[in-house]
Amino acid sequence: MEKEKDEIMINNLKQYYIDSYKKEINATILDIKENKIYLDKTIFYPEGGGQPGDIGFINSTKVVDTQKDNDKIYHLVEDVKKFNIGDYVLLKLDWNHRYYYMKMHSAQHIISGLLYNKFNVRTISTHQGELNLTIEIDQNHFSQEDCYKLEDLANKVILDNKDISYIETTKEKAELFNMRRSIKVDKMIRIVDINGIDQIACGGLHVKNTKEIEKIMYIGFEKIRKHYRLIFRIADQVSKIYREYDRLIKQLCTLHSATLDSLYDCDKALLEKKIELEKDIKSLKKENTNYIITKLINSDTKNIIVKDISSYNIDFKDIDIDIDKAIFLYKKENDLLKWYIYLGKSFENYSINDIRKDVLSHIDGKGGGKFPVFQGKGNFENIEKSVASFIGYFDGREE
Ligand SMILES: [Zn+2]
Is 276 helix (H, G, I), strand (E, B) or coil? Predict the structure, then answer.
């Protein structure tokens, strides 16, 4: 996001201020640094005020960006070796790219002007993106209803075929205008004027008439820190996004065998069903886990049980048993060992701290719990030693 800028110096170099609709021009190369070409005049607008730098061609070589270097402008080219200082070259703008941003920038003036005049809302910063025009405002809320009202007003300005003109004046005289932002530069300035909508000192490029913007569409907002950022699309991007939404909604209707009116209810019912099913799956999984574990433990007549359950799809958290045995379960999960110790009623008096010390030290076992369940993680390397210790711990003490 960038602040709107009012710095402007009209000179022979900046031909885009003299005629912003000029698509081609001849110029002489004054300097070459790395892949940067400096010319005696240019129609390429350098990035600034939220508007990207122009692209196009110098002769047949691609210009990938245009940037400012104080009062100088340089053109970043793909193959600088083709040029020498003093060359007389042909500059050709990527007009679609430039014209799109002229429309977007003009749309921004309309929206910011309306926000100021009709809603008493100020623009803090703007961004002209490949798809979206984003305007950050000095408010932490702007209702959906107001957004639509703003959109309608903006489209009305487009339909009104309002001319966008310029007033070149001194700072002193400019201060008498009713502008939505004070002037920061101290020289001759250019005020862009959209009759009755916006009047502001601006160094960007605009279309001649509001009708060229074609259409403005409000598509949403984002909240950044304390501010609202309103997001818009303009010109042919409006029908593009409309068609995208339309295609998506029709696909959803087909998928759900629903009409446009019943789509929301259909989707809501599906979501509720999904939540219900997930609950059922969870409870079935738990039931299944306890069935497997109980069967596994009861198939062994011993009171001290150790089992590797890696081959079963079991989560220790699902285990809920009441068996009077001392049980040590473990499994391999992503190269890690997960362990689970359960002590039945008769083992109440054994010290879990001692068991932990004797058994888990071999596997570097970490974890915890409270009687009768303890669980955690460790490494697999010395699991046999842990198993032997667990059995050995109860040896001779078992009743
Ligand atoms: Zn402007």
Answer: helix
Q: How far is the CA of 122 from the centre of ligand 1 (A)?
A: 15
Q: Looking at the predicted structure, is the pLDDT value of residue 399 above 70?
A: no
378: Cα separation from own chain's centroid: 38
| Cα–Cα dist 176/259, whole Å | 58
Give the distance (Å) from ligand 1 centre to CA of residue 105: 6
Check if the beta carbon of residue 342 is closer than 8 Å to that of residue 372.
yes
Mean of pLDDT values over 174-202: 78
* Residues facing residue 107 across a β-bridge: none
Tell me: the pLDDT tens digits for 107-122? Answer: 999 999 999 999 999 9
CA 120 – ligand 1 centroid, Å? 20
Q: How far is the CA of 92 from the centre of ligand 1 (A)?
A: 23
Q: 33 C-alpha to center of ligand 1: Å?
A: 30
Of residues 198 and 56, more confidence is placed in 56
User: In the chain, what are the domains?
Assistant: 15-93 (2.40.30.130), 99-243 (3.30.980.10), 286-394 (3.10.310.30)
* Ligand 1: centre distance to CA 240 (Å): 25
pLDDT band at 2 (very low <50, low <70, confident <90, very high): low
Look at the block and give the residue holding tokens 């050995």. Answer: 392
**234 CA distance to ligand 1 centroid (A)?**
16
Query: How far is residue 394's CA from residue 399's CA, in Å, rounded to a whole number?
Result: 9
Tens-digit pLDDT profile for residues 264-305 = 999 999 999 999 999 999 999 999 999 999 999 999 889 999
CA of 193 to the centre of ligand 1 (A): 9
Q: 58 CA distance to ligand 1 centroid (A)? A: 26
Q: What's this model's pTM, rounded to 2 decimal places?
A: 0.73
Ligand 1 centre to CA of 63 (Å) is: 24
Q: How far is the CA of 72 from the centre of ligand 1 (A)?
A: 20
In terms of phi and psi (left: phi > 0; alpha: psi -120 to 50; beta: otherwise), the region of 335 is left
Q: Is the pLDDT of residue 263 over 90?
A: yes
State in Å: Cα 143 to ligand 1 middle: 26
Q: How far is CA 330 from the centre of its chain?
A: 42
